[in-house]
């Protein structure tokens, strides 16, 4: 008793086994669909027909209806879009939003209603912005989805078994296993099928394999055990099988449906691409979680420390709880969710409007900016999906335009006489390079179209001035042509060597030969392709994408390393790289057979210096991508075929063009209007723009806040009164947060766009600790200035003056932090550096950050003496204080600039992302 043989691995519809037994749940059984099986060989036509309980005449209408009711429609599982409310609720799970929510609850618990309301407002605004951006991206993606096919030509019979079948169009969704379908040029393959008959069939499988060249198919049976199907790539190479998602390039065929619906290879990839589990956290999500935990630890520690220290040293009890909560709130960047969402939403909206790039989730835009390695296939990105003629060589290896002339005659008359819908890519390239007027001088009489078995195409023409003579023009595979030429063996070897050298240089090679025959009316057959005269070789190369060279230069300037992962011949990929100016040394090219013998550690070491990975299967691409990520890189992967899905999922950022397979677009994080590297460069620039502003905000805010918290803790222990009232703490924090929102609309320094931007919690913690201590020193120096100005605090008036002096100093130091950490002193003063010298920057240096910092400083100076000051517990300050404060701020600015230069130098030495 034999089990079911799957025609479409790893899942196939089970069928009755030969000999009357049942090998699993079959078409003839009233069971459910069988589980996955592992095929060992392509079954013969007879085996397929028996196991599907069908025949060459197809199914009856009753059989088709019964199978459709039992097995379901032939449709790919649809992806359910999340609604706006669902997206809003999902955005509440953002770590920073959760932190703010906890602080809001604590504030409400201590009756700080103003603080609680402000925090709640910020949470709602952030969630609305994020949900709206992702909902807009989902709507754009829905507009890009296309049907795999709409109708198919199927042979169906009436319920009477003896009635001849009729061919009719039925919706693709109504196809069932066992149906016999007809395929012609331009048809989409509506399901997974096994060919019964085929004539000159070539199929585009780019949506499944990513290879642009059509694959030849035939219906010939394979002896049992002679073909292994252990991998998907081997499965797609089987000439007897065609798969849903592919299309017919040329020829015709009759085939029997072997798998439909969720059991097709296309649907299997769709299911694994979309996934039912929760997706892996992105680089941005992981960074945000790390930073959130840093803040949570600080906030959990701060209030107890304030309470215990004041209780132990000053005898204060729960009356300091509002102040402790205010200190914790002061440590938190409340505007971060709003600023992050605003930065990312503005960048994503600009990309969609200006460049047709759709970012499906807002955090992905930051990950795009952090990409430092971009993996892609050669075809369609570095090169176009078409070849161009490189050279025409005579038998001596020298340029010979006559060879191109005969090749064009063959291409033209084969197209005209063989009733082909359109020339194939190679013929089209030859015709583009030839003189059309010369072709019109010939009169074609017959054609023998290309056959994947013969690997030749022949045109028979009447040569002008040669009455009674027909000229056979043969073009095709080099070996096939040479075998049919009248040549000595040593000459054959010499020509094979000439062709091999061209192929090793990354070129496609066609041979051309002619023969003269007496004119006749009898039909020409492949038997006439003998005794030919070898004319020469036509070499073709992939046409370079017109924008590829410029885009590669931009990516290089952005610090992105491009790596080519392709299934092509290594020479072809290397040549395309060299033509585009990408240096490819011998040790920078790795083939799949070498990859298989390497451990992950060895592959990681080689991947650092490897530019081209050739002969790659989907598994190789996914493994290389994973290894690069493990080595610490942020990896983007551009793919358009179902075979690219594993690598798309393995990458930090999966990128797909709009015309990619539907399942690939669903699995990608970023969708491009065109398969163009320029669009990726724009996306990386937008991501770095947003990421740079987010990182600068975090550095400026957290370092300043940490310094203030340290100073507050110290002052609370040194002073007989609270160093600042809770309302004053919250007011200064609100002013600073409002000013920091300017970072969302800032234009980063050009240096930010030249290096990957990534939020690294350890680096950020190091930064805010160092700069926070510097800020705390400035605050403590201000205490000294206040002590000198007041001759020792202790009275009520002294308390108000102390509060006012520190309130003013805090806002001024925070304004300095915004200016000097973001744009430096020259740009803050309206200058820019060009060629090592300072020049006037005009209005460019005075962006939103400069104006926001100026407003913050004005509030700090003008609020205490204003009529609003007494309402907030503030009072005018003595003139001596302002003189001493100026000296403190000048020293603070010098220290800040020195620390910034030291930090930049160390970052540059480590090769990490700078400002």
TrEMBL record:
Enzyme class of the recorded protein, top EC level: translocase
Subcellular location: Cell inner membrane
EC number: 7.2.2.14
Magnesium among keywords: yes
Annotated region described as Disordered, given as residue ranges: 212-231
Keyword Cell membrane among record annotations: yes
Residue stretches making up the Cation-transporting P-type ATPase N-terminal domain: 38-112
GO MF term set: ATP binding; ATP hydrolysis activity; P-type magnesium transporter activity
Catalyzed chemical reaction(s): ATP + H2O = ADP + phosphate + H(+); Mg(2+)(out) + ATP + H2O = Mg(2+)(in) + ADP + phosphate + H(+)
A Pfam family matched in the record: Cation_ATPase_C
Keywords: ATP-binding, Cell inner membrane, Cell membrane, Magnesium, Membrane, Nucleotide-binding, Phosphoprotein, Translocase, Transmembrane, Transmembrane helix
Chain ranges passing through the membrane: 96-129, 294-313, 764-791, 811-829, 849-867, 879-899
Superkingdom of the source species: Bacteria
Bilayer topology term: Multi-pass membrane protein
A Gene Ontology term for the protein's cellular component: plasma membrane
Function summary: Mediates magnesium influx to the cytosol.
Similarity remark: Belongs to the cation transport ATPase (P-type) (TC 3.A.3) family. Type IIIB subfamily.
NCBIfam families, alphabetized: ATPase-IIIB_Mg (TIGR01524), ATPase_P-type (TIGR01494)
Protein name: Magnesium-transporting ATPase, P-type 1
Gene assigned in the entry: mgtA
